[in-house]
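Two quick folds needed for the group meeting slides. Do the first one here.
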Amino acid sequence: MYNILLLICIITVIQSKLKVLRPSNLINEYIDYSIANFGIIPFGHRLMGLVDLAYPRNGCSDIQPTYGAHFILIERGNCSHVTKVKNAEKAGYQMAIIGNYNDEPIESDITMADDGYGYQVTIPSIFIKKKHFTILSEKAKDYQIEDSNDEKIMMLLKFDVVQTDKISVIFGLNVQDGESFRIIDEYAPYYNKLEDQNINYTLVYFMMSFNSTILEINQRDSDCICQNRYCVFDPDGSGIATGRDVVQEILRQTCIFQKYPKKWFSYMDQFNFKCSKPQAYSICSQQIMDIQGIPKKEIQNCFDESFVDQNTSLPTKNYTNAINILLENQLHIYQVAGMNVFPSVLVNALTYKGQFSGKGIFGEICNSFLTPPPECSSEIEGYQPPVLEQSIILYVLIITTFVVLFSILGFCLFKKLIKRDGEIVTQPQVNEMVSQYIKFYEGKDKQKEGSI
C-alpha cells in the first residue's frame, strides 16, 4: 500500500534541472529534457561544463575530439542514439545533448532507447526540445571546438531524485527473461549492505489480465488462472508448457520474497540456471527450496491463502470466483506506475534510467535518502557522516554532567555513612574488648596474691 500511495502522489517524470550559466541571457529558463536508457546516470550529482557543437553535426561517425569542453550538441537522425553517444564519449566528452525534431513536451525517456549496444556507453546523454537545441547550436556556431574555452557556452545539469526518510524500491521482473535475473544477482550484495536501512521492496512481475470486457482478445484458459484474470502468454508455442506454469511460479517467487527475502536472492540465482523448462517449474522450484533451506510447506500455505473469494474475502480453493491478493496488488502497481518495460526499477516512484547494473541501482537508492547512511558514502557527492544536532549534543552533555555529579555526591555520602557506622558500632566494641582485657589481667593478679 505504501508504494501505491507514493506512486499516486509523485509525478514520475524526473524533475531535474538543465540551465545555461553563460551567456546569462541566452535561455532564461530551465530546459526540459529526458534521459537515455543507457549510459551511467549520476543521480543526485551535478555536472557543469562547457558546450561544443559536434562535427559532423549528426554524430554518426567519428566526432572531432574535445579541446576542454565537457558537453556536446548532436543533431538527431541518420543513426541510433547509442551510436551518437558512443562517438561523443570516444571524442572525450562527458555528456551528449541530442536535439529533437519538434517541440513536443518532454514527458518520458522512451525516445532514447537502447539499440542493444548501450552497454558500451558509460557517459550520460539527454534529449531536449528543438527550440532549445536551435538556440544552443546557433550560439555554438560562433566558435570552433579548438577555440578558447572562455567564450564557450557553460551549462549546469543536476540529476535530481526524490529524497525521503523511507525508500520505496519496485523491481519489475520477467520470469522468462535472463536480464531480470542478472539485475537481481548484481543487486544482491547491495541488498545485504542496506539490509538495516528503512527500505521497502516490492516485486512486480510481467503478466496480463484478460476479462470479458476485452472481447477482441481470446486468451487460452491454460495460460491463465482465476478466469483469465492473471495470464502470461504461452511460453513455448506448441509445446506442453503453458502460461499458467509461469503465473504459478510468479506467485511462488512472490511468497518466497515475502517470507524469506534474503534467501529469495539465492533462490533466483539457482532458478535462473536450473529451471529452464516452464512445464517443470513446480518440480524445479521444490528442489531449489530444499537446497536453500526454504520451508516448502510455509510457501505453499502462502500460495494457497493468497486466493480469496471475491464476495466473502475468505480464503478459497475455488479459483473460478477468486482473486489473488498478491497478484492483484502487482497488477495495480503495474497500472498506476505505467510500467511498460521489463526488467525495470523504480526508486521512490521514479524509473531508473541508464545502464542497468546492481551498482547503479544502489547509487540511486543511496542518493534518495534524506540522510544517507554510512554504507552509501562512496555514492554520495561530498558525503558527510550523519552528525548529532547541537541541541542533542547539549542534552547529552547535560545528562553526562548530572550523572558525574550524582556519582561524586553518592561516593561522599557513602564515605560519610561508613565513618559514622565506625563511630557508632565499632568504638563500643573496642571499649568492651579493652574492659574485658583489663578484667582478665586484674583476675590473674588476684590469683597470684592468693597463692602467696
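Then this one, please, same format:
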Amino acid sequence: MIDSSFDVSYGRTVCFGVNYILNIFEGFLTELATWRKSVAKSGHFSVMAECKKGTHSDCSKECASHGPKIHDDVKDYYGKRVKKSSDLKSNACVAPAKPIPAFIRKALTDVHPDVTDKYYGCGLVVPECLEGRRVLDLGCGSGRDVYMLSTLVGEKGHITGVDMTEEQLEVARKYIEHHTQKCGFSKPNVDFIQGYIEGLEEAGLGENSYDIIISNCVVNLSPDKTRVLREAFRVLKDGGELYFSDIYSSGQLPREITSHKVLWGECFGGALCWEDLVRLAEEVGFSSPRLVTASTVTVDNEELESLLGDYKFVSATYRLFKIPKNTPKKSCLLTYDGNITGFEKALEFDCHYTFKVNDVVEVDGEVASILKTSRFAEEFTFQPDSQTSSGSCCAPAKAVPVNPFELVQQMKSGGTTSATEGCCGARKSC
C-alpha cells in the first residue's frame, strides 16, 4: 500500500519545480525582448541587416500564387480608398534624397495639380539623356511622371504609361490635351494603357520597343516581381535601361506582414530585400544594379510600426541595363563631353561614378560595356584600349556598393556619395 502523505508531498515538490522553471523561462523571455528592442533602436540588429540567401524564389512563388487577389486589393486601395496623397497612412512616399535640378522643377510645375494630387511615388525617376527617346512608365498612376518627362523627351520622343487601376488612368487621360498645349506640341507625345506590369505582352507591348523604362514605387506592389523584370527586359531595346525607385526591406518579411492589405498598399508588405533585387537582375539577364541614391523611410504610424517590428525600410533608386550578349567587359579610360541637357558640368551616373567634363576617368568593365552600348555612347570619348594598362595614371576602379542601407549610413556620416574623381585632370594632360 502506498502512503498517501508521500503522494501529496511528491506532488507539491513537482508543482514547485515546474513553477520555478516557468518563472526562470518567463524572465529569460522578458530579458530577450528588452535586448531585441535595444539592439533594434541602435540599428545593429544583424538578423535584420541582410537577406536570407536562396529564399526569394519561394517567396515570389507564394506571392505570385495570390496574384489576382493582390491585384484586386491594390486596385481597391489606390482606386477607392486613397483619393489623394494625404490619404496615405505612412511616409513611404517620401521626397527625393537629393536636390531637384531647376529644369526638372520647371517640368514638375507644369504638371496639372489634379494629376499631382494623386501622386504616390517614393523617388525621382528622371534618367539623363532623354531627348527623342521612347520611354515606358510601369505603374504610371495618374501620370505625373509621364507628363513631367514628356517635356524632356520632346515632341520627337514618346512616353507610354501602363497602370491597372482605371480610376487613376481616368485622371491621367483627362489631361492629355492640357499638357500637349502646355508643352507647345502639335500632337500628344504620351498615351496610357490599362494593363498589368507583369503582363506587358498581353497589354500589346512588343519586344525591343523602348529605350528606357521608369517606375516609381510600384514594383513592390506586384505579386510577381520576377515576371515584372522579365517583361521589362523583353520590351527594352539592346542597351536600354530600367531606371526605377522603390521601397526595400532590411530582411525577408514574414507572412503576417506580406499578407497585410494596408501594409502592402503602403508599399511595405511587398518590399523586396535589396539582395533579392541583385539576384533577380542576374537571373533575368540585366547588368548588376547600379545604386543611384537612397533615403530612410520612416513610417510615423504607431499601428503600422507595431506590425512592422524591427524591420527597416529605405527608398532606393537603381538603374539596370540590357547589355547586348557577348559584349566584352573591359575597363577603359573615358571622358564625359558635357552635352547632356541639365548636366553640362558633370554627370552623376550612380553613387560611385560622377563624370566631370573633360576629366579622364577609368571605369570598370561593366560600366564600360554599359556606356559603350547604351544611349550614353555618344556622350563620352573613349580612349584606346592600349591606354588602360595597370600602369596608367588612373587608380583602379573600386568595388561598387549596392546596399542602400550602407549608402544611407555613409550619407548620414558625411561620407561622399561618389568615389569618382578625374584621375588625370583635364583630358589634354593625360
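Slide caption for protein two: The first helix runs from residue 4 to 42.
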